[in-house]
Structures are given as structure tokens and as C-alpha cells.
Design goal:
82 residues; mainly alpha; two-stranded antiparallel sheet; 3 helices; elongated
Length: 82
């Protein structure tokens, strides 16, 4: 394991401490576990072909789109006088 220093805002730190006490676990274990779960939900950048990084998508209500199409979606209005 490698040691790093991470700074949290006081309210977040207080919640982390309360949760660690409630689970009777070290704070570091809680943070490692949460980080691993977050990373497990993300696509692995090494799984992408070289130079073929998947573009980020953004939720737009019921639509999810590639950022290259944001401008078209933003200016697609129902009211032609808008």
C-alpha cells in the first residue's frame, strides 16, 4: 500500500468519522472501500483502444448525449421566437 494525504471539508470528515464508528472500522478502510466501489463502476481506460477514449456523456433530462452534440441540443427549442 501507498500512503497519501487527502483533505476533506470538516462536515464530510465528521460524517466519515461517524460512519467509521457505526461500522466499527478504521476510517482508512472506509475510504479505501468507497474508492474501490467508485472505480469499479467506471470503465477501465486501458480497455479502450489507443486514441479511442470514450467521450464523456452528460445527462440532459431524459437524454444522454456526447458533448459534441450539446450545442445542437441546447439550441433545439420548441418556440421558434425564442
Amino acid at each position: 500500500m501507498k500512503k497519501i494525504q487527502v483533505l476533506f471539508p470538516e462536515p464530510v470528515m465528521n460524517r466519515l468519522r461517524r460512519q467509521a464508528r457505526a461500522e466499527d472500522r478504521p476510517l482508512s478502510e472506509l475510504i479505501r472501500r468507497a474508492t474501490e466501489q467508485w472505480l469499479d463502476r467506471l470503465p477501465d481506460p486501458l480497455d479502450q483502444p489507443e486514441g479511442q477514449a470514450r467521450p464523456r456523456t452528460y445527462p440532459l433530462g431524459l437524454k444522454v448525449t456526447d458533448p459534441r452534440h450539446l450545442k445542437e441540443l441546447l439550441y433545439d427549442r420548441d418556440d421558434p421566437d425564442a
